[in-house]
Write a structure and sequence with these properties.
Elements: E1 8-11, H1 15-25, E2 32-35, H2 39-48, E3 55-56, H3 60-66, E4 72-75, H4 81-93, E5 99-102, H5 108-119, E6 124-131, H6 133-139, E7 142-145, H7 149-162, E8 165-166, E9 169-170, H8 180-210, H9 214-224, H10 232-242, H11 252-255, H12 265-276, H13 281-293, H14 296-301, H15 319-352, H16 358-364, H17 376-385, H18 396-419, H19 424-437, H20 443-454, E10 466-469, E11 477-480
Parallel strand pairs: 1-2, 1-4, 2-3, 4-5, 5-6
Antiparallel strand pairs: 6-7, 8-9, 10-11
């Protein structure tokens, strides 16, 4: 039997798993056991990083024997059946009180199912979102663990030791029970989708509207990164736009195929928002824009579709003013994106009985993760001032920001529509904002239509009750059984 000297173990030693294991091993007080289904990866990690002092295991039994009680293991394998297989193996060799953490991009409903099944064995199961990619895993990710309060007692010190740090605070908090961690990570990824789409639309508008080169637009983004738009994604956008292709000498962005990939988490966010009845139009447009980009056969066929007679969104004469309008439109749309994302988290917490601190979520996204940005501090302040804030963008700071930006926002959406330049995330964000502002929406007509063809009933503005018009008879109104 192996001496039980490790306080934490990692199963799955691909890039993310091996980097996370190295991060754990680099922190004082951690001794890390490592296991991979194929022995070669375990051997390679141990040989390449002797400084880490890894304790290799080559069977699940050896892995369990290496870990101190309560045994604590982080699974870093591909989501799906592979995760279930590893969980089954660990449950077989672990004991009540031990902890299994799934650090992959699992669908939160799968995490709820797994937690319920594992709980029956007395073992704790924790679904944990991990954001920051390969570099974050190695140097400090943003961590979103769910699971039981008891498991957090053991995990808290370990995870705080490896998390990214923002303004002296580790970017990790106990999100909530069972699937809460993976739910919040899913929404994080949905926000990431729309953030990237908005940035891409801003680039496209500046290039088409002013004729600037990618390198010149890189300078614009670098300047923006010094102000209220400061963020990791703005920073790397400038780097990507400056890159020149070695083979052709052209800007790299011009030789990359314009078909965006996706791994599913954005779609999960949209599906979940629909199920919860939360309008997440920006995230949805970002997902659908990637889908559209990935169908070149349809886009080729559609090249003969007529476009507007005027194709310029801006002009070189007013380039500076146009670029400033794009910046303000981007900032306003970004506010909407985060507001919609936090609406999904709030609704999910209510639906699944999670006590999620929205301000704490915004704080752990300030470093380590892909959507880290300066204005996450403003979000934390908004929830600190009004913990039960119903709509994030109605916080005073964001109201002022939107008031300052909205004229430019409207000009950009109008000009892109007139010029035939697709800007779905900008446009849908503005439409959502105006929907929130509207004193009355045309949903009353939709209710009338639903009642006409399906007797779905409606409510009135002037008295209580549920009503139905006898459309196929004398069209008188009757009170109906309330189905709401």
């Amino acid at each position: 039997m192996t001496d039980a000297t490790a306080n934490i173990g990692v199963v799955g030693l691909a890039v993310m798993g091996s980097n996370l294991a190295r991060n754990l091993a680099s922190r004082e007080g951690n001794t890390v056991a490592v296991f991979n289904r194929s022995r070669s990866k375990t051997d390679a990690l141990v040989v390449e990083h002797p400084e880490a002092g890894f304790l290799p295991a080559f069977t699940y039994e050896e892995f369990a024997d290496t870990l101190q009680a309560p045994r604590t293991a982080i699974i870093m394998v591909k989501a799906g059946a592979g995760t279930d297989a590893v969980i089954d193996e660990l449950v077989r060799v672990f004991e009540p009180g031990d902890i299994i953490i799934d650090g992959g991009n699992a669908l939160f409903s799968d995490t709820i199912r797994r937690e319920q099944a594992v709980r029956e064995t007395g073992i704790h199961f924790v679904g944990m979102g991990v954001s920051g990619g390969e570099e974050g895993a190695l140097h400090g990710p943003s961590l979103m663990p769910g699971g039981s309060d008891q498991s957090w007692v053991t995990l808290g010190p370990i995870l705080r030791s490896i998390a990214a740090v923002a303004e002296g605070e580790p970017c990790v908090t106990h999100i909530g029970h069972d699937g809460a961690g993976h739910f919040v990570k899913m929404v994080h990824n949905g926000i990431e989708y729309v953030d990237m789409q908005l940035i891409a639309e801003a680039y496209d508008l500046i290039r088409r509207g002013t004729g600037k080169t990618p390198a010149e637009i890189a300078d614009v983004f670098a300047e923006w990164n010094q102000g209220e738009l400061e963020s990791y994604l703005i920073e790397i956008t400038a780097e990507v736009l400056r890159q020149t292709d070695a083979g052709t000498g052209r800007p790299l962005v011009d030789v990359v195929l314009d078909q965006a990939g996706a791994k599913g988490t954005g779609g999960w966010t949209v599906q979940t928002a629909v199920a919860l009845g939360v309008p997440a139009s920006g995230i949805a447009e970002a997902v659908f824009s990637r889908s559209l980009s990935s169908h070149p056969e349809q886009r080729v066929v559609s090249h003969e579709l007529p476009g507007p007679s005027h194709e310029a969104a801006g002009s070189e004469a007013d380039a500076d003013a146009f670029v400033e309008d794009v910046r303000l439109a981007l900032y306003a749309s970004k506010i909407v994106a985060y507001s919609q994302g936090f609406d999904i988290i709030r609704a999910g917490a209510a639906q699944y009985g999670w006590d999620i601190d929205l301000g704490a979520v915004s704080k752990i996204w300030r470093a380590g993760c892909i959507i880290r940005a300066q204005f996450l501090n403003r979000i934390a302040e908004a929830y600190a001032e009004t913990p039960d804030l119903q709509v994030l963008l109605t916080a005073p700071y964001f109201v002022d920001a939107l008031a300052r930006a909205q004229d430019a926002w409207r000009r950009i959406v109008a000009r892109t529509a007139l010029a035939g330049i697709p800007s779905p995330a900008f446009a849908s964000s503005l439409a959502y904002y105006d929907g929130l502002r509207a004193d009355r929406l045309p949903a009353s007509l939709i209710q009338g239509q639903r009642d006409f063809f399906g007797a779905h009933t409606y409510r009135r503005i002037d008295r209580e009750g549920t009503f139905h018009t006898l459309w196929s008879a004398d069209r008188s109104e009757v009170e109906a059984v309330d189905t709401h």
